[in-house]
């Protein structure tokens, strides 16, 4: 073989030699003759030189375009994934929280309870001009632009935030609602992204009206007011329905800077607030929601002073608690449901009468207390007032301050009512056509033995119950009328036995005393008020007497709404609890208590009135219950140790040796009733008492055939001639009964321990009132 280099080519599969193609051989560089420099196999193109140095670090335009396209794809995939993964969350607890609002009958606010001052309203309740003001301030294209997210505004806000021009929202009303209702107030990129996604989804699920309504109810307006209704109250003391265009524009201005634009809290910011207000009104004109002429006459509506949160101080807490109990016991709203908030509760309370009751207590009780008297630390007062015809509670006094004394003295049931219970015995006697032990019909003119500590006599003879009269006074023979005037215990205990303690109890329940009242026991002692009924209970029962025996449960709530929807309330029904004859007979007798008995202080009311005094055991409470034809009210002064909560006697309180029902309670009753009815004409009682019940039917007792004594000879040194003697008519009217002597059985006993007919010991009031 030759040592020379060999030149060869692969065999042509066609069998032809390389030289047979007719093509010239390649050059040393591998290029075919005539081929232009460039890519191999592509004639005429020159090969691109390799990048060197710093140029290698710069991406080519192909790389840049590819990267951008990749990012777009990734971003789109990310948005798609986020849209699929991010759901509309449950609402924030704080966004749905509402306070319950308690109102007087005229719509003015009594109190709010709950942590958040918010009261939701329907969009239809918001005046159109107020709606337009908000739209002009926050999102003028809200209804015309279907987009839930304003991308340009978001980017602009983001740029301003990054460049130090301040944090800005750049959000539509939909986005702001999402932030308020579903998310939070933190300003982060993640929250903003979630806000946009949820806004888009929400925009597809809810109508514009629903979103706008939610926005108005969740936005913060300053002064701790969440929602447009709370704002209307906080700044202008009115409901949202009553807002003017100018006021609505001001509230809309606050959305941009709630605290800064409060011109009352920050007077120096008023020019800025006015500029914002003008901007809102200008937007309304531009959008043709307000005419130029209307705009020209619109003046800046300076809001009222900010009212500090009064919470449940004063009478508010007592009223709120009474309303809660009322709603629960009447089956309207239980405590758990009410605690969800958002209820607007209109009570029957009359603001003027409520204020009058507070003033009467302050002037006639609290003003007489002194820090130097230990007994005055124990003084408590409860009061209630009811319109007899309607059963509406128009005033309720629970104590000096709910934040200082938590138990309401108007509704508590742990103090004896004392002698204010006695009228129920008389009413029961008439209802049941009762007779004395010797068979005489019981009327106001029936004579009983008023001897002190006289033993009560039953069908089977003497019992072991012998109640003492106040100050151990012996009255001798005395009519029921005078015994009522002087609140003689021995007479009423025997009368209860004659009527039947169970019947007396039934009558009291029919009049309005709850059947489950503590110590409402069917024993002769029931007449002396051993039952622990509340002031409000007693007011209801006396209102029944005032309404001629027609009874209906008291009413404390007139209307309840939530989110604009009204809650159905039970209708009040009445029935003839006792006959008109029985009720009017009792009223006629109670009239003489005020005219010349233990309740003369009530004459200060200056119009026809009746009433009864009462004192609890050991003078732990003093009562006055009374009524005019158009208003029944009860006042009780109670003794309670503020440290231990124990009931205490009122001896020495108010600078008096003792406090009885004819003193501070009657004086307070008169002052309140006079003020409450000052603007109303005086009404006379229209009475139809039982035959033989008129005072003219009563004969002097010393003219009785049985030789009884004249009650005017009573050893009571304070006896009034007007209340202890009666004129003798020339003839007894037809159909009337002459005075009848009650049971003379028994006599004085040495013990003062009260016992029932069955021998059981009973603790009874020892005062007459």
Automatic annotation (TrEMBL):
<keyword id="KW-0511">Multifunctional enzyme</keyword>
<dbReference type="GO" id="GO:0016757">
    <property type="term" value="F:glycosyltransferase activity"/>
</dbReference>
<keyword id="KW-0808">Transferase</keyword>
<feature type="compositionally biased region" description="Low complexity">
    <location>
        <begin position="706"/>
        <end position="725"/>
    </location>
</feature>
<feature type="domain" description="Glycosyl transferase family 51">
    <location>
        <begin position="109"/>
        <end position="284"/>
    </location>
</feature>
<dbReference type="InterPro" id="IPR023346">
    <property type="entry name" value="Lysozyme-like_dom_sf"/>
</dbReference>
<feature type="transmembrane region" description="Helical">
    <location>
        <begin position="65"/>
        <end position="86"/>
    </location>
</feature>
<dbReference type="InterPro" id="IPR012338">
    <property type="entry name" value="Beta-lactam/transpept-like"/>
</dbReference>
<keyword id="KW-0328">Glycosyltransferase</keyword>
<keyword id="KW-0645">Protease</keyword>
<feature type="region of interest" description="Disordered">
    <location>
        <begin position="682"/>
        <end position="769"/>
    </location>
</feature>
<dbReference type="InterPro" id="IPR001264">
    <property type="entry name" value="Glyco_trans_51"/>
</dbReference>
<feature type="compositionally biased region" description="Low complexity">
    <location>
        <begin position="760"/>
        <end position="769"/>
    </location>
</feature>
<feature type="compositionally biased region" description="Acidic residues">
    <location>
        <begin position="694"/>
        <end position="705"/>
    </location>
</feature>
<dbReference type="InterPro" id="IPR001460">
    <property type="entry name" value="PCN-bd_Tpept"/>
</dbReference>
<keyword id="KW-0472">Membrane</keyword>
<feature type="domain" description="Penicillin-binding protein transpeptidase">
    <location>
        <begin position="388"/>
        <end position="643"/>
    </location>
</feature>
<keyword id="KW-0812">Transmembrane</keyword>
<dbReference type="Pfam" id="PF00912">
    <property type="entry name" value="Transgly"/>
</dbReference>
<feature type="compositionally biased region" description="Gly residues">
    <location>
        <begin position="744"/>
        <end position="759"/>
    </location>
</feature>
<dbReference type="InterPro" id="IPR036950">
    <property type="entry name" value="PBP_transglycosylase"/>
</dbReference>
<feature type="region of interest" description="Disordered">
    <location>
        <begin position="1"/>
        <end position="54"/>
    </location>
</feature>
<keyword id="KW-1133">Transmembrane helix</keyword>
<feature type="compositionally biased region" description="Low complexity">
    <location>
        <begin position="732"/>
        <end position="743"/>
    </location>
</feature>
<feature type="compositionally biased region" description="Basic residues">
    <location>
        <begin position="42"/>
        <end position="54"/>
    </location>
</feature>
<protein>
    <submittedName>
        <fullName>Transglycosylase domain-containing protein</fullName>
        <ecNumber>2.4.-.-</ecNumber>
    </submittedName>
</protein>
<keyword id="KW-0121">Carboxypeptidase</keyword>
<keyword id="KW-0378">Hydrolase</keyword>
<dbReference type="Pfam" id="PF00905">
    <property type="entry name" value="Transpeptidase"/>
</dbReference>
<dbReference type="InterPro" id="IPR050396">
    <property type="entry name" value="Glycosyltr_51/Transpeptidase"/>
</dbReference>
């Amino acid at each position: 073989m030759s040592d020379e280099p060999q030149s060869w080519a692969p065999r042509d599969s066609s069998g032809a030699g390389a030289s047979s193609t007719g093509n010239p051989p390649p050059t040393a560089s591998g290029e075919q003759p005539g081929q232009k420099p460039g890519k191999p196999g592509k004639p005429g193109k020159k090969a691109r030189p390799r990048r060197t140095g710093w140029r290698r670090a710069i991406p080519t335009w192909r790389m840049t375009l590819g990267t951008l396209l990749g990012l777009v794809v990734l971003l789109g995939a990310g948005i798609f994934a986020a849209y699929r993964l991010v759901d509309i969350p449950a609402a924030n607890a704080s966004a749905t929280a509402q306070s319950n609002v308690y109102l007087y009958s005229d719509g003015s606010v009594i109190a709010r309870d709950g942590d958040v001052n918010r009261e939701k309203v329907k969009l239809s309740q918001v005046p159109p001009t107020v709606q337009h003001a908000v739209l002009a301030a926050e999102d003028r294209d809200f209804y015309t632009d279907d987009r839930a997210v304003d991308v340009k505004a978001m980017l602009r806000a983001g740029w301003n935030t990054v460049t130090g021009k301040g944090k800005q929202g750049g959000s539509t009303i939909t986005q702001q609602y999402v932030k308020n209702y579903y998310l939070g107030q933190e300003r982060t990129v993640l929250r903003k992204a979630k806000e946009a996604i949820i806004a888009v989804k929400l925009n597809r699920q809810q109508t514009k009206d629903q979103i706008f309504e939610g926005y108005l109810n969740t936005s913060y307006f300053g002064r701790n007011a969440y929602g447009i209704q709370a704002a209307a109250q906080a700044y202008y003391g009115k409901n949202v329905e009553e807002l003017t265009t100018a006021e609505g524009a001001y509230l809309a201005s606050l959305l941009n800077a709630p605290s800064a634009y409060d011109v009352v809290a920050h007077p120096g910011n008023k020019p800025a607030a006015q500029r914002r207000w003008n901007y809102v009104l200008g937007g309304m004109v531009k959008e043709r929601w307000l005419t130029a002429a209307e705009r020209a006459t619109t003046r800046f509506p300076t809001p009222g002073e900010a009212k500090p949160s009064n919470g449940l101080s004063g009478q508010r807490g007592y009223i709120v608690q009474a309303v809660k109990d009322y709603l629960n016991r009447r089956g309207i709203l239980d405590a758990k449901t009410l605690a969800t908030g958002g209820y607007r509760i209109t009570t029957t309370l009359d603001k003027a009468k409520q204020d009058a009751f507070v003033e009467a207590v302050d002037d006639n009780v609290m003003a007489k207390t002194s820090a130097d008297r230990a007994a005055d630390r124990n003084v408590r007062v409860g009061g209630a007032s009811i319109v007899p015809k309607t059963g509406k509670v128009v005033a309720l006094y629970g104590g000096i301050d709910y934040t200082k004394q938590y138990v309401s003295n108007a509704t508590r049931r742990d103090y004896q009512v004392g002698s204010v219970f006695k009228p129920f015995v008389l009413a029961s006697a008439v209802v049941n056509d009762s007779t004395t032990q010797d068979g005489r019909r019981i009327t106001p003119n029936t004579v009983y033995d008023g001897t002190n500590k006289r033993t009560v006599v039953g069908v089977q003879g003497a019992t072991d119950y012998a109640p003492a009269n106040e100050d151990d006074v012996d009255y001798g023979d005395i009519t029921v009328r005078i015994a009522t005037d002087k609140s003689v215990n021995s007479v009423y205990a025997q009368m209860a036995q004659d009527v039947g303690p169970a019947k007396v109890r039934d009558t009291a329940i029919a009049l309005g005393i709850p059947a489950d009242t503590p110590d409402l026991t069917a024993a002769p002692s029931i007449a002396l008020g051993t039952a622990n009924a509340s002031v409000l209970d007693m007011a209801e029962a006396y209102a029944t007497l005032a309404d001629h025996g027609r009874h209906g449960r008291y009413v404390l709530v007139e209307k309840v709404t939530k989110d604009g929807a009204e809650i159905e309330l039970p209708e009040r029904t009445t029935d003839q609890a006792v006959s008109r004859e029985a009720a009017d007979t009792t009223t006629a007798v109670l009239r003489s208590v005020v005219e010349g008995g233990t309740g003369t202080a009530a004459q200060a009311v200056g119009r026809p009135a009746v009433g009864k005094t009462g004192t609890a055991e050991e003078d732990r409470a003093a009562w006055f219950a009374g009524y005019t034809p158009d208003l029944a009210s009860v006042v009780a002064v109670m003794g309670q140790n503020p440290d231990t909560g124990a009931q205490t006697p009122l001896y020495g309180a108010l600078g008096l040796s003792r406090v009885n029902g004819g003193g501070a309670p009657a004086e307070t009753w008169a002052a309140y009733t006079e003020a409450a009815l000052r603007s109303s004409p005086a009404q006379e009682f229209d009475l139809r008492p039982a035959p033989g019940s008129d005072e003219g039917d009563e004969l002097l007792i010393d003219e009785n055939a049985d030789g009884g004594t004249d009650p005017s000879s009573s050893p009571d040194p304070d006896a009034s001639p007007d209340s202890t003697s009666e004129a003798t008519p020339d003839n007894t009217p037809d159909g009337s009964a002459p005075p009848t002597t009650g049971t003379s059985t028994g006599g004085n006993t040495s013990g003062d321990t009260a016992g029932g007919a069955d021998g059981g010991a009973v603790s009874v009031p020892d005062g007459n009132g």
